């Protein structure tokens, strides 16, 4: 990280001071408290984007942001959301989503600009800017789009005129002709709700009469209510720095972010230059022409060129952040950011689960543990809640979880194709033991009989988490015998909050966990387990249920049980994860349905493989166990051992689940 606290352009620091509120005094750096994908407990998650920028400018912490465009297909949307998760881990301050009029951008289609931006905010926890163009749109339609964006939790708009449908610009009756009109309309209709970004052109807009006239138009947009500027791409650092100085000279004081385009291919460069009506400098084309058919060589040159230009910009002391045009690709941009020292994958988590950036969830800090590996599903099922638990889960007798009927929403479905899932989970299942093997191969990260690694399960779309790896040996042993684990955590007694595996929250704290184990298993195993559990009460709480709602628990008065908590200086104990018996019944429906929706439906109707999965769905039980004595060694493995010992005993008596 290059810090230039004394020399960073500070012209904006005072201009927005009145709207910034109190400064960050938590002890966390402004960089940590304003990462779009990792807010921390001490930072106000309601902070506006312009406030996050202000804090970073004041502290001298440089940032980066990323631009994406909506994909054309549903599978492309799934891939893009996965890319959000990967690129979000590097700590962008925000991302932005372009507006493509031909792609029905304001609709509910999974490929629309509106839905992609909403998904980034709600399900990926990314601060997001939605582009909005006023070209060929009525005032009422634009107002409708803005209202929808607000309802979906979007707080930032990039106000653009847009390109004409034909060759020439035609005025829209009852619409807007320029971006400044759109900025004024947003402020008129929505007051100060949205942070507004506008576009700047370092060499002047191609349709402007002159460079100076275009600068005046930019100032009009800022004076009308824009909060910051992102520029068109350029090829020389001095082009942007001159533009920045010229903007400051005429009184534009807000942040101005340079648009960086790492050249990634010859054709993509030609297309982008054509759209932006820019000329590529001769010193660049002379290098590109001889290697235009070598994509790897062009990408490496593009990375080198971008790194050199970005270093000049950052070293100038006038540029607080960089905005990257990714073209929905990640390799080149990530490499540039790594070489600049801006890509920072912080192993610490703000909370033990993935947060949402929706404003109404800003106070949310506790969830049931059951959705630990399916946070997007939890957010989807609670999207209509008006209030979210803060501090304690409480004793609600009926939390209103929405139904999850569409398992193929693009942000909920597996990112693996049907073919890949069959290779991992089996083209053909021979018995229940075939299913046991799949779970075991997932735990061990070893290749299955077809030489394919099992990288996901219906309940976990990612490889085993580091924390779960602490339990790997025990998990392998029990899965081999039909205790099919889908969620677990080790007991932790006062580990530092900065621990790279189990830590979360601000530095200087301590975290605690009760051992937890959740699994599917047969009714025969459950019969033995219930007998064994009697000698472990009250140390072990259990909840056992089948798909038909058969419900067995020793949870006192159906009260929630805190299984994760943290102690931090100057605040109450934070308990972000609970085992809630009432919520477990809602999770049960989803957990059982995943057997069918994501596994059984891979096979033909009435096929032996499908019937095996159907049998497990119909006859197995879902079990969760909590060891309340967290300072002691985890006893849950001994509980399972005792269950198997009873099952293996020649003297055991037969029986069924009571």
UniProtKB/TrEMBL annotation:
Annotated metabolic or biological route of this protein: One-carbon metabolism; tetrahydrofolate interconversion
Keywords: Allosteric enzyme, FAD, Flavoprotein, NADP, Oxidoreductase, Phosphoprotein
A molecular function GO annotation: methylenetetrahydrofolate reductase (NADPH) activity
Catalytic activity entry: (6S)-5-methyl-5,6,7,8-tetrahydrofolate + NADP(+) = (6R)-5,10-methylene-5,6,7,8-tetrahydrofolate + NADPH + H(+)
Top EC class of this enzyme: oxidoreductase
Domain of life: Eukaryota
UniProt protein name: Methylenetetrahydrofolate reductase (NADPH)
The species this protein was found in: Takifugu rubripes (Japanese pufferfish)
């Amino acid at each position: 990280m290059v810090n230039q606290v004394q020399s960073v352009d500070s012209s904006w620091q005072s201009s927005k001071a009145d709207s910034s509120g109190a400064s960050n005094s938590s002890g966390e750096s402004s960089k940590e408290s304003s990462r779009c994908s990792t807010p921390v407990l001490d930072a106000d998650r309601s902070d506006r984007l312009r406030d996050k920028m202000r804090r970073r400018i004041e502290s001298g912490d440089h940032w980066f942001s990323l631009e994406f465009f909506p994909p054309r297909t549903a599978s492309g949307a799934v891939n893009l959301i996965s890319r959000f998760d990967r690129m979000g881990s590097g700590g962008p301050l925000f991302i932005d989503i372009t507006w493509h009029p031909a792609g029905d951008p304001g609709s509910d289609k999974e490929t629309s600009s509106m839905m992609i931006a909403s998904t980034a905010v709600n399900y990926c926890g990314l601060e997001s800017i939605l582009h909005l163009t006023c070209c060929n749109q009525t005032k009422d339609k634009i107002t409708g789009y803005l209202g929808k964006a607000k309802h979906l939790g979007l707080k930032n708009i990039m106000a653009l005129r847009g390109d004409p449908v034909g060759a020439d610009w035609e005025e829209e009756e009852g619409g807007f002709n320029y971006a400044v009109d759109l900025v004024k309309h947003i402020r008129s209709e929505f007051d100060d709700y949205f942070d507004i970004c506008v576009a700047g052109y370092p060499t002047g807009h191609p349709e402007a009469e002159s460079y100076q006239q275009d600068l005046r138009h930019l100032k009009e947009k800022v004076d009308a209510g824009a909060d910051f500027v992102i520029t068109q791409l350029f090829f020389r650092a001095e082009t942007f720095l001159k533009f920045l100085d010229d903007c400051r000279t005429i009184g534009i004081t807000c942040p101005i972010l340079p648009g960086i385009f790492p050249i990634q291919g010859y054709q993509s460069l030609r297309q982008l230059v054509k759209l932006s009506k820019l000329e590529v400098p001769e010193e660049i084309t002379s290098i590109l022409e001889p290697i235009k058919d070598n994509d790897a060589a062009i990408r490496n040159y593009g990375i080198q060129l971008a790194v050199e230009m970005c270093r000049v910009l950052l070293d100038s002391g006038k540029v607080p952040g960089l905005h990257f045009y990714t073209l929905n690709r990640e390799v080149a941009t990530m490499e540039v950011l790594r070489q600049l020292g801006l890509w920072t994958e912080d192993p610490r988590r703000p909370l033990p689960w993935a947060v949402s950036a929706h404003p109404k969830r800003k106070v949310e800090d506790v969830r049931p543990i059951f959705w630990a590996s399916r946070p997007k599903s939890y957010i989807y099922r609670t999207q209509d809640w008006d209030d979210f638990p803060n501090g304690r889960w409480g004793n609600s007798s009926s939390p209103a979880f929405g139904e999850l009927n569409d398992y193929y929403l693009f942000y909920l479905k597996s990112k693996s194709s049907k073919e890949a899932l069959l290779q991992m989970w089996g083209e053909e299942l021979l018995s229940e033991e075939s299913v046991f093997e799949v779970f075991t191969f997932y735990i061990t990260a070893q290749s299955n009989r077809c030489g394919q690694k099992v990288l996901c399960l219906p309940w976990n779309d990612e490889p085993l988490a580091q924390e779960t790896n602490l339990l790997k040996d025990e998990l392998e042993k029990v899965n081999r015998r039909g205790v099919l684990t889908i969620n677990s955590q080790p007991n932790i007694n006062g580990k530092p909050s900065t621990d790279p595996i189990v830590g979360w929250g601000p530095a200087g704290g301590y975290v605690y966990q009760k051992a937890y184990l959740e699994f599917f298993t047969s009714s025969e195993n459950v019969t033995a387990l219930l007998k064994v559990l009697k000698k472990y009460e009250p140390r072990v709480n259990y909840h056992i249920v089948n798909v038909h709602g058969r419900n067995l628990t020793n949870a006192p008065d159906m009260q929630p049980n805190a299984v994760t908590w943290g102690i931090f200086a100057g605040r109450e104990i934070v308990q972000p994860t609970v085992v809630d018996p009432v919520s477990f019944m809602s999770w049960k429906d989803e957990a059982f349905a995943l057997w069918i929706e994501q596994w059984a439906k891979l096979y033909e109707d009435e096929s032996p493989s499908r019937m095996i999965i159907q049998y497990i769905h119909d006859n197995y039980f879902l079990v969760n166990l909590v060891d309340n004595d967290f300072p002691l060694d985890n006893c849950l493995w001994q509980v399972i051992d005792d269950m198997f010992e009873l099952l293996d005993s020649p003297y055991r008596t037969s029986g069924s689940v009571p």
